[in-house]
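thought: user wants a sequence for this fold. calling inverse folding tool.
action: design(structure=
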């Protein structure tokens, strides 16, 4: 099933209540074009897979165990630095387009709360 704007809009509406206020516990990058966020929300631990591959784009919760590389890529290290311990505040979609925005509340290097 293709991820068109209507499908992504419905997907965001379905994921939003489950992800609002979720705490980011772990960030992994099992593939070059995929990120796996371990989040804690509504008293449950979940894993959100965000894959942006050209032929296999998807955004969903998964229970599948995905093998990670021995050494994480630099992008994964950057995401870990900024997102681990943060809170996922909102999931929004660009109207009429296939772009999904995640709003996070994290602490910066000075210990101040920032939204990204």
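)
observation: tool returned 116 residues.
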């Amino acid at each position: 099933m293709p991820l068109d704007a209507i499908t992504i809009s419905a997907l965001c509406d379905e994921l939003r209540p489950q992800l609002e206020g979720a705490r980011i516990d772990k960030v992994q990058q099992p593939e070059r074009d995929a990120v796996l966020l371990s989040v804690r929300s509504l008293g449950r631990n979940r894993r959100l897979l965000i894959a942006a591959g050209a032929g296999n784009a998807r955004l969903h919760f998964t229970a599948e165990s995905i093998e990670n590389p021995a050494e994480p890529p630099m992008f994964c290290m950057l995401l870990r630095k900024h997102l681990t311990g943060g809170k996922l505040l909102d999931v929004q979609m660009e109207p009429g387009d296939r772009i999904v925005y995640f709003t996070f509340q994290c602490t910066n290097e000075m210990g101040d709360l920032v939204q990204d």
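thought: summarizing for user.
answer: Here is the designed sequence. Strands lie at 22-31, 34-41, 44-52, 57-61, 87-93, 100-107, 113-115.
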